[in-house]
Write a structure and sequence with these properties.
- The chain is α/β, with parallel strands linked by helices and 256 residues long.
- Helices cover 46% and strands 17% of the residues.
- The chain has one domain: Rossmann fold (3-Layer(aba) Sandwich), CATH 3.40.50.1820.
- The chain has eleven helices and eight strands.
């Protein structure tokens, strides 16, 4: 389904009835990453999957897609659907957006699962990496997409899940340079949400990969403990929805 927001089209799907759960994808991904879980979950609850601005079939809102701006876009869709309370599941950047949403619209979130994500802000080194990435996107989007997605998992898993990774890359190649850069700029300026996550009095989960190449597992462990989140650990990298699909599906079937 397409919904107009600020003269831009936002794409979402909704299937099932009652007890809504909202899925938000990560950077260079789309709502398609959740296709594996929709048939099962939608039998017992409403499953809403959203393409964040500049990704999938959703258009670009501004030059910078801050996490708060994307959260407002998500809120617009949920308001259109009449959603008053929902559990949020966010992968990587989708987790950042979920945290921004919880800060802006705390009454709506009834549960939160961060998948390969963190409430930490970017380090100065990471911010510089974002700037270099944006420059590369301008020069050679295709090279950036291939490199960025390949860097999310081990060489062994890159071979093991070659067809799935190629599918991710192929879809991301269709995203505009402007949309990719807007997200990079938005992630760079996001603020620390650790104390906000800690203060949320709802069921909270962090799903982490022990060999995630872009997130320090020990740091994630400490954050989960500090924020009173239940930590679910897998042995693989940054793409749990591919690398640990069966285990992730079992987890998602159980959360309310």
């Amino acid at each position: 389904m397409m919904l107009n927001y600020r003269n831009t089209q936002l794409y979402y799907t909704s299937k099932g009835i009652g007890n809504p759960i909202v899925f938000l994808h990560g950077f260079l991904e789309s709502s398609n990453i959740w296709n594996f879980i929709i048939p099962t979950l939608s039998q017992k609850r409403q499953v809403i999957c959203i393409d964040l601005p500049g990704h999938g079939n959703s258009g670009i809102l501004e030059e910078v897609h801050s996490m708060e701006l994307m959260a407002e876009a998500v809120h617009h869709i949920l308001s259109h659907l009449g959603i008053e309370r929902a559990t949020f599941v966010g992968h990587s950047m989708g987790g950042y957006v979920s945290l921004a949403f919880s800060e802006k619209f705390p009454i709506i979130i009834s549960g939160l699962a961060l998948i390969n994500s963190t409430p930490d802000e970017d380090s100065e080194e990471k911010k510089e990496t974002r700037d270099r990435a944006a420059s590369l996107v301008k020069r050679n989007k295709s090279a950036f997409v291939n490199m960025a997605i390949s860097n999310l998992l081990s060489p062994e898993n890159s071979l093991k899940f070659k067809s799935e990774i190629e599918g991710l890359k192929k879809e991301a190649q269709n995203f505009s340079k402007e949309g990719i850069i807007a997200a990079l700029k938005g992630m760079k300026i996001r603020t620390n949400k650790i104390e906000g996550l800690k203060s949320l009095d709802i069921p909270k989960f962090i799903v982490a990969g022990k060999n995630d190449p872009v997130m320090d597992y020990k740091r994630v462990e400490n954050v989960a403990k500090h924020c009173n989140c239940r930590l679910i650990s897998f042995d693989d990298g940054h793409l749990a929805f591919i690398e640990n699909q069966e285990e992730l599906q079992n987890f998602l079937r159980l959360i309310d």
